[in-house]
Design goal:
2 helices; single chain; mainly alpha; 0% strand
């Protein structure tokens, strides 16, 4: 997934170890699931338009 979606080192992504859950992420990290990228065709960085739409409808990216 990291190579496919071109995650860069500067994003400091955290990946759960075997047997861990995404919800075990350290404080300050957000959870993005692989299906969100593949099925939802989501890409980073997201545009301001996406943020505006989510805010308008009262949704949060998580």
């Amino acid at each position: 997934m990291v190579q496919c979606h071109q995650f860069t080192d500067e994003w400091d992504a955290w990946y759960p170890a075997q047997g861990k859950m995404a919800t075990d992420a350290p404080p300050g990290y957000i959870i993005l699931l692989a299906d969100f990228f593949g099925e939802g065709d989501f890409r980073l960085p997201a545009t301001h338009v996406l943020g505006d739409i989510l805010q308008y409808y009262g949704f949060h990216i998580s």
